[in-house]
Amino acid sequence: QVQLVESGGGLVQAGDSLSLTCRASGGTISNKTMAWFRQAPGQERDFVAALTSRFITRYFGDSVKGRVTIFRDNANNIVTLQMNNLKPEDTAIYYCAADEYSYTTPKEAMRAGAYEYWGQGTQVTVFS
Questions:
Q1: What's the pLDDT at 12?
Q2: How does strand 122-127 pair with strand 10-13?
Q3: What's the pLDDT at 127?
Q4: Which of these, 1, 35, 58, lies nearest to 113 by C-alpha position?
Q5: Which residues of the chain carry a pLDDT beneath 50?
Q6: How far is CA 35 from the centre of its chain?
Q7: DSSP per residue over the chain, as a string?
Q8: Are 84 and 68 a contacting pair, CB within 8 Å?
Q9: I need a labelling partner for 97 at 20 to 30 A (CA). Which of 1, 12, 33, 38 fits?
């Protein structure tokens, strides 16, 4: 059973950068698609970014494209979401997710229901 723990959230000003970390235990991330989703109060869980295992393909949500990147450190079982030029609308709880399947299309990778493992989330608040 894979456990995921997010860290790095906080209160930041618009225009700032933030790096979120997801640390996995109980299994390796090297053979999994790793992703980040976010959920604002009263909203559905939205896709942010994903990184597949097989072809190291990255997918990004439209609302964050050009402002975030995702990368993995397989040796330390860590996935990082680097977010730049943050906006107040980025305020949400950010969740790390993992799945055994290496998704080959954005549609697959962007679906929250496709992921088997989830962390508890870390709060990001952006003020203007």
A1: 98
A2: parallel
A3: 97
A4: 35
A5: none
A6: 4
A7: --EEEEE--EEEETT--EEEEEEEESS-STTSEEEEEEE-TTS--EEEEEE-SSS--EEE-TTTTTTEEEEEETTTTEEEEEE-S--GGG-EEEEEEEESS---SHHHHT-GGG--EE---EEEEEE-
A8: yes
A9: 12
- Residue given tokens 């969740």 in the structure block: 95
The rounded distance, in Å, linking the Cα atoms of 30 and 56 is 10
Please identify which residue in the block is written with the tokens 């980025």. Answer: 90
Residue with tokens 């990082």: 80
CA neighbours closer than 13 Å in the CB half-sphere of residue 16: 16
**Residue that is written with structure tokens 């496709």 in the block:** 114
- In the chain the first and final C-alpha atoms are separated, in Å, by 40
What confidence score (pLDDT) does residue 62 get? 95
Residue matched to tokens 């949500």? 61
- What's the CA gap between 116 and 25, in Å, rounded? 14
Distance (Å, rounded) from C-alpha 95 to C-alpha 1? Answer: 17
